[in-house]
Amino acid sequence: MAPPSFCECEVPVCTEKSNPCGTRSFEWGLPRGISSPGCKGKEEPALTIEGGCHCGAVRYEIEGEANHVAVCHCTDCRRCAGAMGVAWAGFPIANLSLSGDTAVYASSPGVERRFCLICGTGLFYINADAPGQVDVQVATLDEPECLPPVRHVQMADAADWEKTFHQLPMHDRYPAQD
Q1: Which of 46, 64, 123, 175 is the most exposed place for a label (fewest CB within 10 A)?
Q2: Do 123 and 60 contact (CB within 8 A), yes or no?
Q3: Is 60 in contact with 114 (CB distance < 8 Å)?
Q4: Under a CB-based contact definition with an 8 Å cutoff, are residues 150 and 69 in contact?
Q5: Where are the domains of the chain?
Q6: Residue pLDDT, tens place only, 158-171
Q7: In the CATH scheme, what architecture does the domain 45-159 have?
């Protein structure tokens, strides 16, 4: 995915930003020290985010900024994803362009989860209580590091041991067997 273009005289970059918990996070922006007074008053084009499923049968694009980015720990998300938490980013559904077919699973009343028909990758969450909105699984973005979560939600459903996850040893790859 090409970086978003703010205007023809600025070149935005995806940069690592400092994080108090020591994890890596990234954001789109202009390189430090760059300013362009000639761009005053010009409208910035919408950011386009791209992603897709594991096998490539489903691809999507979303224009605009996310209205929320969070890791959900609810029982439904955990079971549907087979993971302890799922990072979601919410957008207006009108901003979503989709190619490929998805299966629909009604995980609870008024909720649709959409998956790739071929590989089963979970992609989208649509809730009738949030009309006009779609949540996208951040892990399916081509560049997930540029849309870091800002909070955990539904911690009441999280396993007790998730609260100490950050204390576990971390390895770049799977450690050698002893």
Answers
A1: 175
A2: yes
A3: no
A4: yes
A5: 45-159
A6: 999 988 888 999 98
A7: Beta Complex (2.170)
